[in-house]
Amino acid sequence: MDDPAQESSRRLKLIIEYDGTDFVGWQMQAAGAGRTVQQTIQEAFQTFTGSDAQVVGSGRTDSGVHARGQVAHAIVQTGLDCEKILKALNGILPHDIAILSVTETDGSFHARYSAIERRYSYTISNVPCAIDRRVAWYVRYPLNVVSMNECCKHIIGEHDFRAFTSSQAEVHHYRCTVTAAFWEQQGTKLIFRIHANRFLHNMVRALVGTMVEVGRGYYSPEEFSTALTSGDRKYAGPTAPPVGLILEEVLYSHA
Amino acid sequence: MDDPAQESSRRLKLIIEYDGTDFVGWQMQAAGAGRTVQQTIQEAFQTFTGSDAQVVGSGRTDSGVHARGQVAHAIVQTGLDCEKILKALNGILPHDIAILSVTETDGSFHARYSAIERRYSYTISNVPCAIDRRVAWYVRYPLNVVSMNECCKHIIGEHDFRAFTSSQAEVHHYRCTVTAAFWEQQGTKLIFRIHANRFLHNMVRALVGTMVEVGRGYYSPEEFSTALTSGDRKYAGPTAPPVGLILEEVLYSHA
Fold it and tell me: Which residues of B touch A135 (CB under 8 A)?
């Protein structure tokens, strides 16, 4: 490389937690659109390195969606060691973003393209909740978790999830391989966990919204299965709100 | 009773959750002092009953302290059944307060004087945290949970806790009977749980602040024990911030 700036640039892997409530999402947007996590982290890098940084996430999260384990790579120019970068970032960033780790990586690692699995959770509270109101969707009617778990059996494996994505999604195909999907009861909360190689836009929220219709008895698990195989968004239920959705973890073939 | 208003008044037991971040505490204060949980609930009752309500809590929680199971009794005048009162309150109250249950009780029940045990938790995060930043104290140095649990052995039983309370506390005596006290590790969090018949002002936070000094190696568990028996606040450590403290539950002899 002849460009001296390029020569000194490093590629770091970041693990990031954020409360998405007050962000318009992960992805940088046009000026004035609101706070984004990506832009906020890029600016934090600029503050202490004095040069531009490029931060690329494993995927977008929408407005109001949270992360406990978003992964990004950052192309930055600084001589600081990773431990000092971690402290500098957490010292600069607002309280709704926390960097959990910074490690050295190289050009073979791409936060988005190297990812082999994403893991999300979605939390429903069956009672009004104050403390967890930013991370749980309050559903007032009783839900049958057994029939919601029946739906999960239809999700697991490789399927075309066209019926569970926003119509405007621009993707080459709709096939996703789901390796785990289940609901668990924890006190007055119901937590949905889903692991897959990829997710379509609004997919988890559309699945949750539809399974809630099953849980309250509006649809049967068989109708859920029919909606999935139909490939038609109109046979699925409403999209659950972003509040309960958390990107928990992103897995890579190499650490 | 000759007063018709008195005749129609009822006594209800409430279980209350709140995020204390944006309150100056439970206890009603002089006008202009800020939002209190007690006042906010009294006003919610007034909104739908059209008459004054008196709400009495099991005890005060300080500014910034949370509750998952605060208990109060409310003296109110309304003909609505408990289920409707619960819905009305949750419909009116701001999102940082949730009423978990409303049940009928009578003059034999007093939220404060009938309580036989209070249970608190205090959460420390050993890494910066975004999602739980309102309910966990971020402590940046590593903590030895074994020596912190050594301290707990000295707390359990009946002791004079004068060394662990604010000097201005106005109480007849300082004896408290602690029935459980322990730290548990949950991932990157350390959670302290303590159950006692009564708590002095700032007692849990002073205990936590002092045990953190033990956990980081500044004091030994023996010095912690000496501080307790000294009865002198100056031998104990600093008071931990309110952010991590949650009133979990209040127990009564009768349900």
Answer: 131
Instruction: Give the position of tokens 């029940």.
Output: B109
Cβ B165 vs Cβ B231: under 8 Å = no
Domains delineated in chain B: 10-105 (3.30.70.580), 117-252 (3.30.70.660)
From B68, B95, B131, residue closest to A68, measured CB to CB: B131
The identity of residue B87, as a single letter, is K
Q: What does the alpha-carbon distance between residue B2 and residue B24 come to, in Å, rounded to a whole number? A: 39
Nearest to A130 among B96, B129, B131 (CB): B96
Location of structure tokens 């912690």: B224
Q: Which of A99, A126, A131 to mutate to test the interface with B (most CBs of B within 10 A)?
A: A131
What pLDDT, in 10s, does the model give residues A195-234?
999 999 999 999 999 999 999 999 999 999 999 999 999 9
Cα(A14)–Cα(A104) distance, integer angstroms? 9
The Cα–Cα gap between A198 and A187 comes to: 30
**ipTM given for this complex:** 0.89
Which two tokens mark A253?
């073939």
